DNA sequence: TGGTTCACG
DNA sequence: ACGTACGTGAACCAC
């Protein structure tokens, strides 16, 4: 212990505000209950850094007690006109004290006084006792407290940078003594604290005057001898203000604080409180750091008993167990199983992959439908074991899927992160065991690996009941057990089946494209008058907006935009814009689709195997990755040709595709109950034509021309997205006023839709979430935000999510029934892909007729709505031809 | 690693 | 007055 005593004084109120605005990422920093945590996160970082750099022996965090202080008693405008605290910060306020006290420091506030006064008082007391004092604040006024024993650190930008003020540095920078800061303030006033000073006197003039006269008092004593000037007149006129302002700026060094200095001794961190606080706030990185700083991390774990198996017997299995298969790679179609663990309440077993996968006993158990298995990520587990020659059956619970249904933010691969959401911490993060980045590896010591896996299995066992209870509470039992869990098995099968892609097609395109790209590149260089990287938006914007002197149309965060809409506008003036558009289109096809796809073709089978991510989107849709097969080009003919490479696996087979027609608008018609929109669908009208007729007052459908229909279509889309006049105007290239008129007319003609929008936003505000037809939830904490943008976004999301999500629910039901029907009818057909509103199959030619009946029948009847669902089907020799 | 652009529904 | 359409993934650049 250092014999030198050091007191750290923090201006809690000021730092809390700085923390909030310095890390204003409200979307990212939210805990599971929707509480914003950005300021707490930033504040924690400040605290941790201060402990490291300052190593204080004593500490206090002072807060302002309230609006009225002794200063407002003699100047009631003091700090008037300040904005009220944003609600997103207010909700975090109570937790600052929890955090600070868990860190071992005291907090303090005193009615009638500000944090400054408390800090000033303790600083002076401590100086007398020979302490070294450090003050941390965002408020420059406190520099008046700087002495040889007291340093004042002011936050520069945000909270990461601090600037130290000592008497010397103040002298050097401003040419005055710390205490003269008060006189300075007296003359110049303070706009943020809302007191005036002397008119027309800013920092520069005030500094000059203080250097000359020393203090406000001195200045006025000698004012008669001052030369006649406008400034002198002002000084005389505002004399009262000057003294008032000086008084306001003076920190009270004698506040009646109740704690003795020795009570401010910094205590040990309260690890238990800190852990539960971090857990509540979902601060996983801090939790992790906390783990690392513990001398013996495993001490914080409960003991665990498991058996490392070398020889596997039937005794190792029971009727109901949890199972975890470990693989470090993300892509389970290509990775290698490391080890496997399984167990029940009584026994936990773990073994290396070589041992377990060779065992007939394990295979028999895994493939036995009647032996129930709980897992973490069923689809992944099924796929991994499939490639090891084992067809896993009897999966009755998936922890990852369950936690995603309860909270769509739980999508991670790491079981520890999800477990932590449910206050279970008896399992390590993968990162702590395997490392990260390039150094990721299985630990050399088998015992470490085995224990880690055994703990994962135990986590699944321990959390199962809790998760199921939560699902029941949310009315999501069926969504989980009847939809998502069965779907996981369906998706596993689709992924494993894969789809055949002919490399010859793509190779041909690759050669052609690269030749054309080179030509286009040369032409662009000629237009530009120099060579540059056409793929670099930054270099391109230099060419366009600096060298060629074109007028920028749109800005991005980092510079001028060169996106499609901008280049389209520029193409009227300069030919290079169109060339770049053409180049980009082709370059995209080449790099993402031609070359990109080629990399994913498995040489042995000629197939690509995407992975559907079932636990990612906020709406319930699937996503597809490695490769993404949900965004293969279709809109432009040139890109559409990529689909010619997607072919059936077997000779003489066909690609068969069925897609829902207008599913989102039909869902909207159903959940809004709008009579007119329902009628249009029930009578089988073209919805966009029908909208055009109603909104533009056209009687005869034949009079609806292409352009009018296009506009009506854009409005319909806008409605689904939670329309705004601005968005619609951008999309249609019309004025905001016109767009607003469209929308108003629309709501007039479809009053049920407007009522639905108002209702759903209201509901979101009440409950904090919105729901799909099948009770899939999306939480919207920003719906009550004081920030216009965040709130507006949440409102649009409240409208869109039930629509997009219900459509996602419907196709998921159809997929499960389709897979079942194929098996029951013993068809050879295989379901290959899902692209949000369409399903793609391959089948022998003779089954085409069956699918033409069966697929629409199942898709259209997946759910019973108040409007019909309609499905279109097509088939051909390739995906391209199934149109 | 974040920003920009662009492919899809 | 505010500054947006909803949901994704991949390639590339620049730091």
UniProtKB/TrEMBL annotation:
DNA-directed DNA polymerase family A palm domain sequence ranges: 639-847
Keyword Hydrolase listed: yes
Superkingdom of origin: Bacteria
Matching Gene3D superfamilies: 3.30.70.370, 5' to 3' exonuclease, C-terminal subdomain (1.10.150.20), 5'-nuclease (3.40.50.1010), Ribonuclease H-like superfamily/Ribonuclease H (3.30.420.10), Taq DNA Polymerase, Chain T, domain 4 (1.20.1060.10)
Keywords from the named record: DNA damage, DNA repair, DNA replication, DNA-binding, DNA-directed DNA polymerase, Exonuclease, Hydrolase, Nuclease, Nucleotidyltransferase, Transferase
Record-annotated 3'-5' exonuclease domain positions: 305-472
Entry's Gene Ontology molecular function annotations: 3'-5' exonuclease activity; 5'-3' exonuclease activity; DNA binding; DNA-directed DNA polymerase activity
NCBIfam families: pola, PRK05755.1
Subunit structure: Single-chain monomer with multiple functions.
Record protein name field: DNA polymerase I
Species for this entry: Jeotgalibaca ciconiae
Gene this protein is translated from: polA
